[in-house]
Amino acid sequence: xxxxxxxxxxxxxxFTGAILAKxxxxxxxxxxxxxxxxxxxxxxxxxxxxxxxxxxxxxxxxGGNIRRICEYLGIASKINIRDVDDDCTxxxxxxxxxxxxRIAKGKDGFVNSLAEVFPDSREELQDYVExxxxxxxxxxxxxxxxxxxALNLLPDGSLVAADxxxxxxxxxxxxxxxxxxxxxxxxGEGGRTPAFTHAIISSLYIRGASRFVGGSSQMTTxxxxxxxxxxxxxxxxxxxxxxxVDNRMVSKVTTVSGKEYSADYYISDIHPCTLLALIHGKAxxxxxxxxxxxxxxxxxxxxxxxxxxxxxxxxxxxxxxxxRNYADIWQFGNASKPWPLGLLMMTPPVADQGPWSEKVLxxxxxxxxxVSRWADTTTGHRGADYARWKEERAAEVLxxxxxxxxxxxxxxxxxxxxxxxxxxxxxxxxEGGISGYSKDCNNIMLSNIQxxxxxxxxxxxxxxxxxxxxxxxxxxxxxxxxALLGQNxxxxxxxxxxxxx
Length: 501
Fold this sequence. Notes:
This protein is α/β, with parallel strands linked by helices. It has 14 helices and 21 strands. The longest helix is centred in the last third of the chain and has 21 residues, at 384-404.
């Protein structure tokens, strides 16, 4: 039996571990936190569970790419999710003119929803939607198609900046801003983010989005069960302190407690820069190290976790995007702009969900610079200034929410907040980046990190490789697994499983 040690038990580590375990590998996952799952984790406050990261998910519709991977792993039927409403998958509110837009599911729903407000742009909207789906449909991995080329050639225009791509099809400046509303989901920045990133995420959620019922940690449990059910293990509270490399081969990893683990292969699910700091011995060239260190990270987030007073705020079965103005829709990563520029608001469903929300999650893009003065502090020891700073930021966020939902603040029972420092320390994400490495259309190869490395038995997985998020990370796990199992091996297995159903 071949063996693999996976460093990091986040979404990427667990999906990669589950695939390899299913295919006969002896898998050991080492997770530094007391609970595995990374962005799948939940925490308990005020007598209820809150998701830390995966608030809205794509690819879980019938025939969706992530659903098909879960069917192959045998867990799809066990996942408790709720689809958002067909007639309104997303609601957008722009504060500068107090206009609300409601987006329906599917290509036609998307076009018809916006054409009601922009009737003169219907044909442009149709061409735009076809263009983003053309890009998404051209990517073999995204569609779980076998490929026989190391290169996946993208259609013309997919490597330009996303804002320029939208402008190519849509002439109305206000509509262009509306079409960019999802960019906080992928760390979008004007003039930088490639059109293919925008197209992949947009097409994914136009197809339909879902939410976990009762928390995203159920995915951690299900993936862990796949690993342990095939003889593997997921060991929490086991931070890796060192990785020994001899003659460009990893020989062992050692945890902070002094335990040593050896395997045929080693897979890193942690940030590449964090990985570099753990390696002992000659592994990577100075140029490769410098490249990994130089890639900008996506911006981070400030979050509010709110318990509502009973029967005061309705359950809303779609996501709500509140944005300060149309002009700054691509400026979430711009330090010179006022904060907050916008937010994502959700009412997570619970079992037997009634008409009222028990809790509300609010995520607000934020640069790490906002918390850099406390960069050398640790959780629970950041001081009174930090606590006051969080209270002030929370008040600013709630003031923005009040523009859309007057009286919302008065209905709050209790509230907890987190900052980019929380994300950095809890997930080991450099500068608290929530979307992995930042993609730049002006230097597309800089952040194009391969799953294989110059260390022969060390591979990479996770949100900094390929795509991020609940869709991108499992797809990268397929890539990483196929680096060991063979090109198209896993994809063919997935398709065989789904075709047999």
